Amino acid sequence: MKKIVTTLGAVALSATAAQAGGIDRSGQSVAVLFEQGNYVEFSFGRVAPSVSGVGAGTAVSPLTPTPGQASGDMAGNYNSIGGGLKYQINDQFSAALIVDQPFGADVSYPAATTYFARGSTAKIRTMAMTALLKYTSANNLSVYGGLKYQTMSAVASVPFVAAYTGKADRDGGLGYVVGVAYEKPEIALRVAVTYSSSVKHNFTPVETTASPLVPAFLFGLPTTVKTPQSVNLEFQSGVAKDTLVFGSIRWVDWSKFKIDPAVYNALTSGSALVSYSKDTVTYSLGVGRKLNENWAVSASLGYEKAGGGFSANLGPTDGKKSLTLAAVYTKDNIKITGGVSYVKIGNAKTTLNTPSGVAAANFSGNKAVGVGIKVGYRF
Fold first, then answer.
1. d(CA 260, CA 225)
2. What is the pLDDT of residues 3-47, one digit of tens each?
3. CATH number for the domain including 20?
4. What does pTM read for this prediction?
């Protein structure tokens, strides 16, 4: 059971991170730290979301700017890369280095429509490197922690807000990770709780607008963005011969995250370019099965409750349900993992940056498909 099935939990947990709450992407798992012996892995994923909506209201009662007009697919496809290195120092100490892209966004409203947000675009890019050290006691209780260095950049163009554009060049910031775990290898049991701190980025964005009403002193003002803190509870356990149950609970502090550069803030009477009203909790539960000495498979379900209220026009989603299928092929020291996820994205309503509380558009029936491959080598 230990040879193959224990790998399945991490496979499905990482695959279902696609289209999680906010701009979450990687799920920030530390599973590589629990690999046996010395181990290195590289992963690549491709996610293809389809997100579109329709202007709220009707031509008879046009309370919104473009009632009944379709937005077109505004969510761009994206790639995700990652890697990890784990080194067993001795029986008690091990270390790991993890590289991932924890947060990101790709927004592109088609320009050839009559929808009010047509032509709006936004990109957020992050890259993180996390160094961890783990101590394992004689009773299989372990504690681990380390530092994370993260870079972030962003660019946006919002024509329907006074032809606004903004760009923030890459900035780096430090955070930390701490956790505790308990393992019982003979039944493939592991329970791990990991806390990842927020990371502060200090930007001096370049902003432009067609509006002559914005005071000159607001241009070039610095702004601070903090990516959210989070807690991951990951667990797995053998329940029968060659069979494993696994899952996770992930909380992310999205309610304290916002990107609100000074000029955009002034144009919208205090609104943020990107913000979320509530935190998210994402659940995953699955089962893995060893088929033979080389092959194992798994299936898992994911769920994230909708927060309700209005979503941002640059992120018109709210909650999700997902199904992930994965397989692992192991031969000698090589392990190849493949997975596919289907995500049903929760319905959302957006509003313009006004205190009216009137829905600007309704987004429903949206989805995402993600595929990924991971290659690991034990040395």
1. 8
2. 444 455 444 444 444 445 779 999 999 999 999 999 999 999 999
3. 2.40.160.60
4. 0.93
